[in-house]
Design goal:
Immunoglobulin-like, 3 domains, mainly beta, four-stranded antiparallel β-sheet, seven-stranded mixed β-sheet, 19 strands, disordered C terminus, 1 helix, about 240 residues
């Protein structure tokens, strides 16, 4: 899972009389329908209590004894006591909105009565996350498969093929030898904003390469013209020039 933090604004205010520390942070977060979205607050000390709200409505909390979830996030959210993270599962369009977390934390040595820290998030749920498209071409005697998506940032690419030893890939480009089994499929998996989806391409949709048949014997001579005319399909029979 991952959180996209596009921009942030922060200011710190210390009130020693009330021993209250407030960290005001605004994060812009985006996610896709049906994916998981993680809010990751920043705080100091050891978390003892936390309350998450959407607008003015409480949606999740740890009261020091148990986790509680409310409203539309009931059965669809998870809190982490160690990190303070709130994870929304199977994001819905109605999850869009402003979220606030209030965390009560004490010093690691428990010398203080606790610090209140707040973070704010503006969540925009779009989607759904669409599978990537794949297309294939031949470059320098190899099949090159391109994985393309309309998403422009924070996209992770992964590839799968039945014989991974023959596959070379980096980001959205994968390479296979021309002799790769055309009955197989290759898969491109994209991961973004806590969501993962794949697209596939059957290798029989790739163009068929050609090579030069260079059959020579002691008694046979091949003219340059004959050699140039001897291009054949990679899966066809070798010609005899």
């Amino acid at each position: 899972s991952s959180t996209i933090k596009v921009s942030s604004k922060a200011s710190v205010e210390q009130d020693e009389t009330l021993n209250t520390y407030r960290s005001w942070i605004l994060f812009e977060v985006s996610g896709f329908l049906g994916t998981s979205i993680v809010f990751s607050p920043t705080f100091k000390g050891r978390l003892t209590e936390m309350t998450w709200k959407k607008g003015t409505n409480k949606v999740a909390e740890w009261d020091g004894h148990q986790f509680k979830y409310y409203g539309s996030l009931t059965g669809r959210a998870e809190l982490s006591l160690s990190s303070g993270n709130l994870t929304i599962l199977s994001a819905q369009a109605g999850d869009t909105g402003i979220y606030e977390v209030e965390i009560l934390a004490e010093d690691d040595d428990s010398s203080s009565t606790g610090m209140i820290q707040r973070c704010y998030y503006n969540l925009n749920v779009t989607g759904p996350l669409l599978p990537p498209g794949l297309n294939c071409t031949i470059v320098k005697n190899r099949l090159e498969i391109f994985c393309h998506t309309d998403l422009s940032t924070n996209v992770g690419y992964f590839w799968w093929y039945s014989n991974m030893d023959r596959l070379i890939w980096e980001n959205n480009i994968a390479k296979l030898p021309l002799t790769a089994d055309r009955s197989q499929k290759i898969y491109c998996i994209i991961e973004v904003s806590g969501g993962r989806i794949n697209g596939s391409l059957s290798l029989d949709e790739c163009p068929v390469g050609k090579y030069m048949c260079k059959i020579m014997s002691v008694t046979q001579k091949i003219s340059l013209y004959g050699l140039m005319q001897c291009g054949v399909e990679i899966f066809g029979p070798c010609c005899e020039c």
